[in-house]
Amino acid sequence: MEWVHQPPQQQLQQPKDHHNDQNNDTGNGGNGGGVVEVLYGKVMTDEQLEILQTQISDYATICEQLVEMHKSITDKQELAFSRMGNLHCDPLVASVGNKITARQRWTPTPVQLEILEHIFYQCTGSPSKQKIKYIAAELFQHGPISETNVDHWFQNRRARSKRKRLNISPNNAESKVEKDAESPREKKTKPRNLHSQRDSAPRAEDHCFKNRKMSFKTHFMDPRTN
Amino acid sequence: MEWVHQPPQQQLQQPKDHHNDQNNDTGNGGNGGGVVEVLYGKVMTDEQLEILQTQISDYATICEQLVEMHKSITDKQELAFSRMGNLHCDPLVASVGNKITARQRWTPTPVQLEILEHIFYQCTGSPSKQKIKYIAAELFQHGPISETNVDHWFQNRRARSKRKRLNISPNNAESKVEKDAESPREKKTKPRNLHSQRDSAPRAEDHCFKNRKMSFKTHFMDPRTN
DNA sequence: GATTTATGAATGAAGG
DNA sequence: CCTTCATTCATAAATC
Q1: Which of A46, A55, B88, B106 holds its CA 20 to 30 A away from the CA of A134?
Q2: Which residues of A touch B21 (CB under 8 A)?
Q3: Is the pTM of this model over 0.70?
Q4: DSSP reduced 3-state for A19
Q5: Does A207 touch chain B (CB under 8 A)?
Q6: Inter-axis angle of helices A129-139 and A110-122, nearest 10
Q7: Quick check: B165 and A58 in contact, CB under 8 A?
Q8: Do B223 and A6 touch (CB under 8 A)?
Q9: Residue A65 contacts by C-beta under 8 Å, 6 or more apart in sequence?
């Protein structure tokens, strides 16, 4: 398989993952190894196959989007993204380099956030797909964003707003009104909360299941596992 | 594999150097000021665009080859997914002492997941009730699980896999055109196991793509560009 | 620059 | 199936 060396993209290394399908081999290259697994006779596992497939699809999509973006931008050169600090993220282009490190999470620009919040107040229900599409298109003028991002945003916003209502203010009816979105970037401070919902009580059995990262050396022998 | 867009002629030639930063968005200004001037102009040069396309084609070719290779090899040997060993974590007996903080959500163990994925790839349709029962029984050897879990898992897996695939095709012109008539729920999420990250090239507008982590966790293709 | 917090995204579970 | 919700995971941003 010499072609292995020729493909366009350079390797992307990523430290952590969700479901890593581990090849059946636990022994070989943990996180770093980029080894073609011919070891077992299989060129790649089914999972890998799907991943590859997904990646190609993604590539196609990205390409489309880039072209779109490129087109629209060149047409009217006024689309400036306000936020360019240290964010990097360039999928393909970046990956072409030799070293990759990237960001993976979308972060709304102040303007986008403001708009989103505004919409949120007005419409309590969840925006329809169509609406999401529209919103995304609107927001795209203020920075990179996808429909998925919008969808997730509303989902999270709704969920968290609700939870806050229920947990933090059991006595009060609720006030959906919350802090207005101002410039988050400049100075966004948050009043310290008493509790973090994130600290999970150490439950022994969780360890076993919790870890989705199926890194090769999974915690098969996690001592905690009572 | 329909996702392969077109059989590229060029045999895996690799484009070199997409560091488009050079004249385009050059080094992103660190954190302070975005010195990215190119952003205002073009997202990428025509040359870069072409390179990108070439890469996609290359990917498609590689994929085809891999699939072929994989197919021929696997036909010969069927490997039963049996490789797990010790791994255990006790079932969800969360009740330790008096306070019961039972876990509410089942989380597949790495082994279970692996098996499920295997089955998923082999049988495209939904497993029958009977089959689910059998699968659950099998998986139970590797950790707590119920038929419901299995059922849900397949349902979610199928749905998400499908959705992902569907989103890829629709041509999107989200720039300013908001004339979408129909709203196919668009949601491109989760390439299942990667949380990759990429960066390096400082581009501000890529957030939108962040979820298309195209890195292949196993760099079995390790394509390096230059 | 190590820790903590806020929040985008992934995913098990339900409802229809 | 499809959509939505609830919970959890992972990480950018904020703090210390």
Answers
A1: A55
A2: 93
A3: no
A4: strand
A5: yes
A6: 150
A7: no
A8: yes
A9: B172, B174, B208, B209
3-state secondary structure of A206: helix
What confidence tens digit (pLDDT) does each residue in B175-199 have? 333 333 333 333 333 333 333 333 3
Q: Is B111 exposed, middle or buried (0-12, 13-18, 19+ CB in 10 A)?
A: buried
B59 close to A13: Cβ distance less than 8 angstroms: no
Provide the 8-state DSSP code for A174. Answer: -
Tokens of B75: 């036909």
Matching residue, tokens 């952003």: B39
pLDDT at residue A45, rounded to an integer: 65
Tens of pLDDT, residue by residue over B107-163, are 999 999 989 988 988 877 778 888 899 999 989 999 889 999 999 999 999 888 887
Query: Residue A103, SS3?
Result: strand
**Is B13 in a helix, a strand, or coil?**
coil
| Bridge partners of residue B198, in order along the sequence | A103
One-letter amino acid at A199 equals D
Cα–Cα distances in angstroms (integers) from residue A142 to residues A79, B175, B220, in the given order: 8, 11, 38
CA distance linking residue A144 with residue B36, whole number of Å: 15
Q: What is the pLDDT of residues A101-130, one digit of tens each?
A: 444 788 999 999 999 998 888 877 777 788
Helix (H, G, I), strand (E, B) or coil at B194: strand
For the stretch A189-211, pLDDT in tens is: 333 333 333 333 333 333 333 33
Contact residues, A window 176-195, toward B, CB-based 8 Å cutoff: none
Distance between CA A89 and CA A97 in Å, rounded?
A: 12
CA distance B97 to B90: 16
- Cβ contact, residue pair A35, B109, below 8 Å: no
What distance lies between CA A133 and its chain's CA centroid?
19
A-chain residues within 8 Å CB-CB of B40?
Answer: 73, 77-80
What spatial distance separates the first Cα and last Cα of chain A, rounded to whole Å? 45
Rg of chain A taking only CA atoms, in angstroms:
22
More confident residue, B109 or A171: B109
Residue A99 banded pLDDT, cuts 50, 70, 90? very low
What are the backbone angles phi and psi of residue A103, rounded to the nearest 5°?
-100, 160
**CB A78, CB B175: distance < 8 Å:** no
Query: For A45, which residue in chain B has the nearest alpha carbon?
Result: B70
Out of B43, B108, B113, closest to residue A66 by CB: B43
B178: Cα separation from own chain's centroid: 28
